[in-house]
Amino acid sequence: QLQFVESGGGLVQPGGSLRLSCAPSGFFLEDHAVGWFRQAPGKEREGVSCIRLRDGSTAYADSVKGRFTIARDNAKNTVYLQMNSLKPEDTAIYYCAATYPHYCSVAVSAERYDYWGQGTQVTVSS
Question: Which of 69-73, 106-110, 111-115 has the lowest average pLDDT?
């Protein structure tokens, strides 16, 4: 089954940092865009960030701008989400998925994305 594998989640105190990794299993990323989404209990899945692999252009949700950074390592076929200054409201399961480059926007529905992984839990709590 073609899907992403997310890792790097955990428990961190407010103000702390985590780096999430997203790597495809069973396929190679080429001219895609990769997005990070998150879903908190009882809430809709929301777009966090997206990156176009060819040119590295990015998009961020307003709630994470200035705190989160998305990056790709094409040689390692991996996309990262560096999360700094974490807040309790960042607590969620974080997922990554792929889409066409022109859909790379946090406003685009998750339905436009494919190859969803199982997600990685991020908990921000003191």
Answer: 106-110
